[in-house]
Every structure is written in structure tokens, then in C-alpha cells.
Amino acid sequence: MLSKSQINLLKSLQQKKFRREHGLFIVEGHKSITEFINSAYRVEAIYYTPSFDSKVLKLSQKINFCEISVTELEKVSSLKTPQDALAIVKIPEWPILQHEQLKGKFSLVLDGIQDPGNLGTIIRIADWFGIDHIICSEDTVDAYNPKVVQACMGSLARVKVHHTSLTEFLLKIKLTIFGALLDGENIYSTDFGKEGLIVMGNEGNGLRPEVQKMVNKAITIPRIGKAESLNVAIATALFCSEITRK
Q1: Residue 26, SS3?
Q2: Closest by Cα among 76, 95, 140, 110 to 200
Q3: I need a labelling partner for 26 at 20 to 30 A (CA). Which of 52, 72, 176, 235 fits?
Q4: Does domain 4-90 correspond to CATH entry 3.40.830.10?
Q5: What pLDDT sits at residue 157?
Q6: d(CA 184, CA 163)
Q7: pLDDT in tens, 129-153
Q8: In angstroms, rounded to a whole number, what is the distance separating the alpha carbons of residues 132 and 135?
Q9: pLDDT number for residue 50
């Protein structure tokens, strides 16, 4: 049975300020929880209903397991239809990225992404294409937002997401900066080479001016039809696919 303090903690972690205060975030559902158990993240506790797969309970003796009722899970879940379990996971403190860590590979850079579903999908895309790091502007939605965690389907357990000042970061990392812009070189004829930073902009405004100035190569996905724009997650998938293909 959940205590009042446990209920208050679990509910509070739906808000960014309390996630930062406690250094914890929520993961829901059997598949995602299993992904985090088998990762570098530290799972602090799992609150599970009787239908939860009991095999997971044997994966680690360091996790605090607590069986609760479906009604109790509904009280603390952020989902309209809660799954069979909810876990509290420690927010990691990733070391500051250095040039050496990004050399010889591609990394994603996100400028002001606001929609949790978009960020979650981009994390999942990065995982699919083997991208290890996503560097986000400070105003990009929190990677540990419950909606982001749910949308990425466990991929956050493998992809490191960093929030930082983009201008300072881009000045420090000496790699080619490819920016997704409307007026640029055709993505299908671009030679991306073997390393670089792929910068994707805000859903409504694209890249902010100070970030645009730092782009070495503006890249465009050519429009054939009449749609005004592409969803940023879809555009990211096309960039990742084209980089992988070449």
C-alpha cells in the first residue's frame, strides 16, 4: 500500500522542478522499465500491480519493489490508461561533452524543441540509427518529462540527452555543423562526410538567428507538394536515414 508521502512524491515527479529537486523521474510500463534496469541508469523503486511480470522482480536485488493495487497505480500514473508498473529512476549526471567524444560520428543538436512527443520520437530515432548523443538547448523540453519518456519507448536508456547553452557548445566542438533550413543544399546531394552535428530547430520558428550564424552547411529537404512544413521528428528521421545511407 502506498503511503501519503509516496503518493505525493510520485505525483510531484510529473513536474520538472520537483524532478530536479529530487533528482528522480518516472518510467511506466513493463518494456520501458526493463530497458532501464538493463542500462547505466539506477532504478530506485518499482511499484507494480499483480499482473506485472514476476520475472522482472528477479533482475536486481538493489531495487525496492512494492506491490500496489490497480487503483493506487491510477492515482499516481501520468497515463490515462496506466500500465502494470511504475518505476522511480535516478537522473544521471552525464559528464560535460568533449570534442573527442563526438569525433568520428554524428550527433543531433536540438534548438528549442517544445513538444514532448517530438523529443521522445527523436530519441527513439537516434537509438534506431545508432546516435549516442543528443544535445539540447536549455529551453528544449525536459528529456525526463513523463510524456517524453513514454514516447521514446525505452530508448532514453541508451541515448544520452544533454541540456546546455547551444552557442557555447557549438563554439567549443570543432565539427561541421549541418543546419536544417528552408534555403540550403539538397539533402540528397549533400556529402555529409563521416562526422558532424545535425541541428534541428523549433517546431514553429526553426533555428534561432544566433544558432543559424554558426551553421557551416544549410541543408534542405526538397518540397515537392504544397505542405508548409515537415514535423521536426520526421525531418530528423530523414536526416539520420540519409547520413546512414551515405
Answers
A1: strand
A2: 110
A3: 235
A4: no
A5: 96
A6: 27
A7: 999 999 999 999 999 999 999 999 9
A8: 10
A9: 87
pLDDT for the residue numbered 62: 80
* Nine-digit cell string for 240: 539520420
Query: What residues does each domain of the chain span?
Result: 4-90, 99-245
Q: What pTM value is reported for the model?
A: 0.93
Distances (CA, A) of 75 to 1, 2, 71, 143, 183: 12, 10, 7, 23, 49
Residues in the chain with pLDDT values less than 70:
54-61
* First-to-last C-alpha distance (Å) of the chain: 55
Q: How is residue 94 written as a grid cell? A: 552525464
Task: Identify whether the C-beta of residue 219 lies closer than 8 Å to the C-beta of residue 180.
Answer: yes
Task: Check residue 56 and give its pLDDT.
Answer: 62
Number of neighbours of residue 227 by Cβ within 10 angstroms:
8
